[in-house]
Design brief:
heterodimer, A: Helix Hairpins, 0% strand, B: mainly alpha, globular
Chain lengths: 102, 175
């Protein structure tokens, strides 16, 4: 298979990471910040799997699966925080969440 | 001929991937952002298939596009996605600084990749047909990477317990 080699995947992955970073920095809604974090994690996964293919080593895919499990955990905790914030009538705006008092 | 097909699939998936990623961060309604992220995850699964990672692609669709995004959509429906203008909220210098920071990250990553790997990424390893199959991944997972497997299970358990504690009404009142 003479498709695009790993540098193409790395380029796409870095663009995707920058998009995710822009979303984290620019958006106020914590839900969309979490979605942008998912984009960044997935761009790292793409680089890992690209190198796994390039080097012919399954270890990169194992790492990507571990990253997926960590991302799922992060979503559970993040969404739990969002629900708890919503329940205590705190506005869902990351700029106005200036204290950590319960 | 297969070469052209692979390139065509790659280009379509890459454009879909970047386009839906930009859509995620530019929709004002979080519900639409979550739907766009599902498209992003699906196009990434196509790229994983091109990289001979069949099991990871299947897990991506099942775990991400299935479980995680359903949870996201439930929470957005519960919280009531309050629409917010994507690039108009707050002072404009913040948005400008964020765009500059993201551009700096991009240039930094590209330079780092180019300097460390420049010209040495041409020769791809030969793989056999079982590479990335469930049997292959499972065997490596349970032999060489057994510790990562066990740590993953502990991380998931801790996250599940933390999610229950964060979501329960009783602990919030006690605190």
């Amino acid at each position: 298979m003479n498709g695009p080699d790993v540098s193409w995947y790395l380029t796409l992955s870095s663009f995707l990471f920058a998009v995710g970073a822009l979303g984290v920095l620019i958006r106020r809604n914590p839900l969309i910040v979490l979605l942008s974090l998912e984009i960044m994690l997935n761009s790292a996964n793409l680089a890992l799997i690209g190198f796994a293919r390039h080097l012919g080593d399954t270890g990169g895919q194992i790492f990507a699966l571990a990253v997926m499990a960590v991302a799922a955990s992060e979503v559970v905790v993040g969404l739990g925080l969002v629900v708890a914030l919503n329940r205590s009538r705190v506005p869902l705006d990351v700029d106005r969440l200036s204290t950590l008092r319960g | 001929m297969g070469n052209v097909l692979v390139w065509a699939v790659w280009v379509v998936a890459a454009i879909a991937c970047l386009g839906s990623g930009i859509a995620v961060i530019s929709f004002s309604n979080p519900f639409f952002s979550a739907l766009a992220l599902i498209g992003n995850l699906a196009s990434l699964a196509v790229l994983y298939l091109l990289l001979a990672a069949e099991f990871v692609a299947a897990a991506q669709v099942l775990v991400y596009a299935g479980a995680v995004m359903v949870m996201f959509l439930f929470v957005i429906a519960y919280v009531g996605g309050r629409a917010e203008h994507a690039f108009e909220s707050g002072p404009s210098w913040q948005a400008l600084a964020a765009a500059v920071a993201a551009g700096v990250i991009l240039v930094d990553v590209v330079i780092a990749i180019g300097l460390t790997t420049g010209g040495r990424l041409e020769d791809e390893a030969d793989i056999d047909v079982v590479f990335g199959s469930p049997a292959d991944v499972g065997e490596v997972f349970l032999t060489n990477h057994l510790l990562a497997f066990e740590i993953t299970s502990i991380v998931l358990l801790v996250a599940a317990v933390g999610g229950v504690i964060l979501g329960s009404e009783r602990t919030r009142k006690r605190a």
